[in-house]
């Protein structure tokens, strides 16, 4: 019975359709003033001698409405005549946007709104454009924006002049940032991770103190990545929302569910039958090292990166890698890495769209896959990530479409550019004095990917200025070329009787020689002037004058830390050498630094750190090493002693030495002040020495090691980060100047 009814309904539909269908012999169009009959027929896909039924009429009606040319359309068929009556939407003669002073916001609105000159006007498009304008302003921090449109219509010409008056209002300030939920990590640490900042009256430069949807989305990604690298596999930033208070400012709240810590369990690597197991032995070694270690997203990414490298080295061009994660025993994860052959496609063409300021070659330089290459999914995804990592674009989208032949593909990459310049200012005050400084930085100068960085710093004893120009991928070499100009004045006339002023220019490069090993050669030309007064020692007075030095400097950095931000395992080792080419002093300087990190307790998160610092400065001629070139220990290498107040003493002046060394041991103390959100505490043990004076062997201080121990506390205050330490010297000389308490308070503007 059901089958019979179904067949009957279908038959009835076919009969009724054929009954109401007519062959169109004539087409009449009325009501059109600006749009011709032929254009209307093309837009509605209407042709003579075609069979028109209700369905066909509805299709044409929909197509005509989609053009936005008409406010009303009627289609009727009578005696094979199709009558089309239209009422045209008015045409826009001019669009004027008022009330916006920011040129970039005005340009973005002008480019993105639908209602443009010589286009048809509709109320629906106007509503969408008003919402678009509000969203663009919210992205820039203007949450109180008002958009007031006004129309001046010419009935005779059926045209409109559109004026959009915008009252931007005050920027939405972030009064307070809160983290709620099962977050497990202190607010102090989370505030250091996110980009948004709390507004203070002195923060008149930073744009991060204003509510900005794009920055908030970035904050959420930064939080999720940070938690995952700390082992919180199931981290969820459930939501982020802003509450408006009575003063017109916002409270930004992040609701976090960290979940439990997870650990790596078993790893499995599945390869195609024709792949050589020995080519992937390094991956299996990585699996063994990670077994039972705390889960880290960076570790997974490092495995995928290594698979990418090994695939390229062994000419596995058409591969794809996937990862299956399985939770076992509540807090452990099994990982199954599957490598399989992908379909064999080649890249016919790469189209790049949306880059109005950035040169296309800058984007193409970030691509690992190029036109004509095999389309490797791993390298394709890495290429897109490389473009995103430049920071030049707010959005990067890509798609792969069919090419002109069956085994070719076209890659379309669309970008949306964003501001790449920034201004920064900061200040600090502590027991060692006060400091104020600032800088201007542009990451994409002239759209060429050039990085310009200028800075100026003023303290009680020195003035420092520097300008750096750097060009990534110089001459398509994958190396960064940089050049800098600097000027420094250090005034020690009151304390030690001398003043140094130097101006320098340098040119160099930096590149990754081997995996995680970076090499940075540099040529440096310096002109220095040393001035003394009557209180200077005889040896200092001998050095008074002007010096010109041309050095070849180079450095090597081997970085195996698990993270550049707050690492908890791994190490970084660096060696730097300064070699004189043309010099009035002919000093050779060698510096060796190695720092190791280790998690001492998985449960509490206690992190241990050990660092060794060695420096030697010697002249290859009979000249004494200049006062400005001598070795000394930075304060953080030997706490408990005043800066520059240990080592050889000449006529009551600390003159530095030819050698300096220190050993620093420290550990965080997460168990203390666990319930206080804005405090971190650590314990440290320092030992070090400065010795060797080439002009006088009698004041050599090489046989005595200074040491100290103490605790340091980092406190996040409403003004800015405050750090202070309490230190007790263990061994010292009578000539040393010690300090038990030291603090520094810093902020940004």
Description:
The protein is built from twelve helices and 35 strands. With 749 residues, it is an alpha+beta fold. Among the domains are: 19-88, Roll (Ubiquitin-like (UB roll)), CATH 3.10.20.310; 92-167, Roll (Ubiquitin-like (UB roll)); 174-257, membrane protein fhac (Ubiquitin-like (UB roll)), CATH 3.10.20; 263-341, Roll (Ubiquitin-like (UB roll)); 346-415, membrane protein fhac (Ubiquitin-like (UB roll)), CATH 3.10.20.310. Strand 33 (706-716) and strand 34 form a beta hairpin. Helix 8 runs antiparallel to helix 9 (297-313). The termini are far apart.
List keywords for this structure.
about 750 residues, Ubiquitin-like (UB roll), 16-stranded antiparallel β-barrel, three-stranded mixed sheet, 12 helices
User: In CATH terms, what is the architecture of one domain?
Assistant: Roll
- Largest sheet descriptor: 16 strands, antiparallel, barrel
How far is the first residue's CA from the last residue's CA? 81 Å
Compute the number of helices. 12
By CATH reckoning, the class of one domain would read Alpha Beta
**What amount of the residues lies in strands?**
over 45%
Shape: elongated
Which superfamily, in CATH terms, is the homologous superfamily of one domain? membrane protein fhac
């Amino acid at each position: 019975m059901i089958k019979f009814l179904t067949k009957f309904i279908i038959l009835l539909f076919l009969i009724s359709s054929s009954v109401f269908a007519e062959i169109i012999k004539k087409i009449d169009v009325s009501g059109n003033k600006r749009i011709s009959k032929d254009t209307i027929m093309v837009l509605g896909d209407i042709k003579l001698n075609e069979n028109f039924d209700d369905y066909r009429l509805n299709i044409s009606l929909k197509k005509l409405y989609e053009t936005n040319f008409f406010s009303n359309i009627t289609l009727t068929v009578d005696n094979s005549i199709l009558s089309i009556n239209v009422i045209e939407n008015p045409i826009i003669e001019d669009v004027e946007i008022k009330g916006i002073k920011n040129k970039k916001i005005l340009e973005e609105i002008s480019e993105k709104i639908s209602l443009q000159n010589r286009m048809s006007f509709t109320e629906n498009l106007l509503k969408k454009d008003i919402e678009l304008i509000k969203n663009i302003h919210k992205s820039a921090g203007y949450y109180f924006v008002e958009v007031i449109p006004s129309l001046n219509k010419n009935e005779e010409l059926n045209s409109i002049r559109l004026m959009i008056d915008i009252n931007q209002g005050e920027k939405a300030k972030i009064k307070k940032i809160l983290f709620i939920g099962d977050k497990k990590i202190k607010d102090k640490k989370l505030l250091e991770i996110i980009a948004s900042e709390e507004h203070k009256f002195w923060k008149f430069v930073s744009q991060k103190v204003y509510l900005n949807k794009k920055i908030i989305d970035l904050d959420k990604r930064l939080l999720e990545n940070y938690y995952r690298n700390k082992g919180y596999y199931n981290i969820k930033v459930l939501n982020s929302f802003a509450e408006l208070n009575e003063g017109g400012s916002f409270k930004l709240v992040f609701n976090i569910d960290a979940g439990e810590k997870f650990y790596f369990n078993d790893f499995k690597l599945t390869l195609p039958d024709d792949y050589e197991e020995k080519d992937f032995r390094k991956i299996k070694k990585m699996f063994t090292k990670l077994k039972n270690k705390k889960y880290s997203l960076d570790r997974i990414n490092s495995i995928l990166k290594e698979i990418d490298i090994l695939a390229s080295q062994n000419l596995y061009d058409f591969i794809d890698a996937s990862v299956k994660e399985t939770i076992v025993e509540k807090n452990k994860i099994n990982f199954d890495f599957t490598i399989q052959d992908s379909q064999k496609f080649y890249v016919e063409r790469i189209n790049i769209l949306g880059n109005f300021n950035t040169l296309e070659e800058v984007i193409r330089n970030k691509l690992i896959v190029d036109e004509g290459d095999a389309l490797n999914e791993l390298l394709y995804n890495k290429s897109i990530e490389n473009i995103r990592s430049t920071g030049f674009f707010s959005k990067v989208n890509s798609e792969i479409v069919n090419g002109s032949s069956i085994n070719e593909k076209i890659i379309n990459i669309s970008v949306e550019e964003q501001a790449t310049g920034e201004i920064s200012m900061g200040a600090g005050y502590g027991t060692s004095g006060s400091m104020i400084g600032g800088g201007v930085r542009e990451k994409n100068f002239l759209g060429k990917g050039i990085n310009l960085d200028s800075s100026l710093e003023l303290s009680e004893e020195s003035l420092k200025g520097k300008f750096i120009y750097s060009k990534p991928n110089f001459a398509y070499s994958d190396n960064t070329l940089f050049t800098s100009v600097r000027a420094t004045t250090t005034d020690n006339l009151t304390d030690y009787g001398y003043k140094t002023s130097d101006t320098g220019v340098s040119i160099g490069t930096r590149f990754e020689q081997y995996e995680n090993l970076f090499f940075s050669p540099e040529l440096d030309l310096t002109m220095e002037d040393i001035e003394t007064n009557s209180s200077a020692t005889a040896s200092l007075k001998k050095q008074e004058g002007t010096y010109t030095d041309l050095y070849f400097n180079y450095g090597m950095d081997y970085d195996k830390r698990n993270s550049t931000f707050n690492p908890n395992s791994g190490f970084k080792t660096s060696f730097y050498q300064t070699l004189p080419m043309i010099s009035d002093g002919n000093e050779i300087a060698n510096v060796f630094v190695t720092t190791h990190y280790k998690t001492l307790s998985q449960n509490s998160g206690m992190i241990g750190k050990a660092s060794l610092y060695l420096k030697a400065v010697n002249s290859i001629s009979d000249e004494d090493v200049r006062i400005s070139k001598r070795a000394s220990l930075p304060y953080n290498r030997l706490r408990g002693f005043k800066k520059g107040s240990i080592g050889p003493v000449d006529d009551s002046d600390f003159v530095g030495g030819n050698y300096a060394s220190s050993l620093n041991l420290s550990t965080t103390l997460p168990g203390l002040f666990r319930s206080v959100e804005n405090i971190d505490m650590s314990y440290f043990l320092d030992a070090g020495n400065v010795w060797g004076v080439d002009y006088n062997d009698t004041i050599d201080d090489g046989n005595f090691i200074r040491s100290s121990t103490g605790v340091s506390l980092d406190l996040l205050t409403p003004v800015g980060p405050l750090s202070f330490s309490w230190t007790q010297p263990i061994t010292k000389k009578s000539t040393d100047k010690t300090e038990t308490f030291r603090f520094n308070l810093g902020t940004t503007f």
